[in-house]
Design brief:
Strand content: 35-45%
Radius of gyration: 40 Å
CATH topology of one domain: Immunoglobulin-like
Structural class: mainly beta
CATH class of one domain: Mainly Beta
Number of strands: 10
Number of helices: 1
Helix content: under 10%
Strand order of the largest sheet: 1-3-8-5
Amino acid sequence: MSAPKRPLLPALAACALLLIPATSIGESVLTSRGNAGASLDFRIIIPPIMRVLENSHPNLLDAEAGGDWSAQQRLVVVSNMKRGFCVTLRMNHPQVDAWRVSAAQAEGVQLTPVSDGYRLCAPRAGRYTLLLDHEFGATQTSAGGALRWPVQTDITAL
């Protein structure tokens, strides 16, 4: 006796394969209506920079005829700080009795005396070249002779 034929089994298997979704079919659809749009939001952050490019002055000052000293300081500062910067000049030498500073070249920079020296402020960002004329008066005990540069320069952002 021969085995019974099962004609339904291959047909059922074929139907089952048709019901399983194919993974290779993409889900893209082409439409002619509707609009596509996108927006980009860029932020460029520039770090704050304040750099002293030059702070030149004589290291040793020779006394003038009256025993006092004078010298010029060249200060070049570059800053991108919106509100600017300030430079504080302080005396750090006991031999100096009197001190006077004037700004020979200071475009838009304010020079004001403060209790322990002078304050030089620039109100906005930019490159500043400052020529500062210093005059130092000697104490009675140290009149004449050489003097090491007596000014300390500090810079701060506003």
